Write the structure tokens for this entry.
Amino acid sequence: MQLEAYKIADHNQKALEAHQRKLSYWTDEIANAEPIIQKLIDFQIAIPSWALGTGGTRFGRFPGGGEPRSLEEKIADVGLLHALNQSSGAISLHIPWDIPTDGEAIKSLAASFGLRFDAMNSNTFQDQPNQEHSYKFGSLQHVDRAVRQQAIDHNIDVIKHGVALGSNSLTVWLSDGSCFPGQLNFRKAFERTQESLQEIYTALPDDWKVFVEYKAFEPNFYSMTVGDWGSSLLFATKLGPKAYTLVDLGHHLPNANIEQIVSLLLMEGKLGGFHFNDSKYGDDDLTVGSIRPYQLFLIFNELIEGMDAKGMNHATDLGWMIDASHNVKDPLEDLLQSVEAIQLAYAQALLVDRSALEEARDANDVVRAQEILQEAYRTDVRPLVAEARRRAGGALHPLALFRQLNIRQQLIGERGLKTIATGL
Ligand code: AFD
Ligand code: MN
Ligand code: MN
């Protein structure tokens, strides 16, 4: 379904007075409100095609109805999100869950919603029907050359799909590793993986990047071959200048200092992409900002500091993507919440008084340094984010409008109650 612009305009009209009251307070308080609003308008977050349906746990799956049944319907869902918030102008596809049979048609359908294609994702962590070799014991690391070749060919195929869609990056997440001590020769597994990645790297077009995503555990529980940022960085460095590390917030061991990891990867010029989500225990894939919003702010604080130090463009020089799953929420509502949480953290981090912070650091004034960060974090930037949305043509309150317009009911009407989207 298409969301007509007049519905957003009506909604904004009704909410305008209250919004302007809140906004004027903050624009008076915040000296650089205008450039922050502009940065927020420019900042786009890619929606993963696999997060538009209700996710399952290994215990069950409880679909809420109206889930997209095809790639076209997934694109329409992201189009809806983008119409509401004007900040989700990209989609990240997972192959083979979402094979575009007609690249041109899919590309123009996406363009009709103002969407472009962000990183393409390969899948060598599941066996597909009629697949010749199994990935039970890994893919790019496998002891059998034929299995490795199948996984390499798949990644090259994903690049081809991406080229047809105008994407310019590939994310490789491997479930490769071992479940028990003794199962794997770590060094040989690394070397085989490196060799396989090198073949994929060779097939990358000149203007493409490859993101090597790491994950500490699961589905392998003793070792993961790309288990941490160190091994990812090692792979990326060995591969060459088109290879980067991708940080997924849920892929660390408990209490890891992710903001420090981000800072060092940026220093090395090797941070390429980001998967946002939140977690309490493991790779929980929860709504961004639902558990540890302060950590998210601290991460953005390092992102901005590190990107500015290198003269990078916040909006375009890293791949910003959500990677989440929703067991008990409406996926579209959840994604609206996630995008907003990302924008809030970004806006708060933009508020940090960086020269004062450096002064405090140079004077070893720990208290002052903490105050400066928390001053920014405790500022209510919601009106700024809403204003950025309004100026871009989105809704002041996307979630409220989504509910008011009964969008989920309409989708159920169109698609039916018992539909299941492809994905995990
Ligand atoms: C995994 C990783 C990776 C992968 C996704 C698949 O986060 O990004 O593509 O889930 O659903 O845990
Ligand atoms: Mn991920
Ligand atoms: Mn994950």
